[in-house]
Amino acid sequence: xxxxxxxxxxxxxxxxxxxxxxxxxxxxxxxxxxxxxxxxxxxxxxxxxxxxxxxxxxxxxxxxxxxxxxxxxxxxxxxxxxxxxxxxxxxxxxxxxxxxxxxxxxxxxxxxxxxxxxxxxxxxxxxxxxxxxxxxxxxxxxxxxxxxxxxxxxxxxxxxxxxxxxxxxxxxxxxxxxxxxxxxxxxxxxxxxxxxxxxxxxxxxxxxxxxxxxxxxxxxxxxxxxxxxxxxxxxxxxxxxxxxxxxxxxxxxxxxxxxxxxxxxxxxxxxxxxxxxxxxxxxxxxxxxxxxxxxxxxxxxxxxxxxxxxxxxxxxxxxxxxxxxxxxxxxxxxxxx
Length: 337
Ligand SMILES: NC(=O)c1ccc[n+]([C@@H]2O[C@H](COP(=O)([O-])OP(=O)(O)OC[C@H]3O[C@@H](n4cnc5c(N)ncnc54)[C@H](O)[C@@H]3O)[C@@H](O)[C@H]2O)c1
Hints:
By secondary structure, the chain is of the alpha/beta class. The protein contains ten helices and 15 strands. The structure holds nicotinamide-adenine-dinucleotide.
């Protein structure tokens, strides 16, 4: 049976996911949409040729009898109330990151889900669905490089707008490394620190860029993440794991090596959407398939909470320059290990 989905927030990623469900994925259909700009929601219905009702607000959409699962793709500060409303009605919900804008908000969702007694929430962290990260995890889990000791990462964007602030390097950018490295290493963070190299002249006056985020995990793995959002040359994601007996690197996205004009070159992507386009498809198809089978999997509300606690610690570390402990509540048995 086709899963009937309601989409809250028809902005960039909401439209993208609605298109995905309608044109690329199988087993689901969009039957309801809403946005605080109803005109835009209506336009999305027309543009994508959806057979969907436009609701006045997210709560009416969640309550609608024919909405079997909910996609929350509105602005971050609105996520918590919609996820809680979906849980209250026992409806599975895929929520784009962040799960909530505070760790306390994430914890309220964790508690509501635990009380419900069954997983309903998948958070939209897509990197664990990327083919390259999966291959890297497979190398680690099959003990081909021994126990991981050090991880070197880089997250580089060509440029950012003037509205991008120093803390967004954590909350919007490194948040993806925070999530994927926990998953990759099957570990939690113990402490974090942020150090600032010489600033690029291509960053706006209020932005510290680049930054280096240093993290230590509970098992003692040391991680460095270079975040450089005005690197000019491309969108570049690097990850190298140093293990006891070998080193494994995240594969580069495939591109045609070219010999031309006295150069031997490979193109580098410039758009983050291109880099993870397949991962978005796989994560959402995973949600649809799981819900149809009566089980929600993927990044959990607990993972959303862990990311929020770690991001808070990183933002504090940005301000103080200190090594900041990452203090998480005890993990409910509900989420396994
Ligand atoms: N996983 C990823 O890589 C990824 C990528 C992009 C965006 N996101 C996340 O997705 C969310 C949306 O990002 P975006 O780039 O699409 O933003 P956007 O501004 O393009 O779209 C958000 C939409 O939500 C609507 N909206 C806001 N409050 C609402 C409410 N109360 N009810 C209904 N609609 C409401 C806005 O009008 C807007 O159309 C953000 O949380 C962002 O962090 C995640």
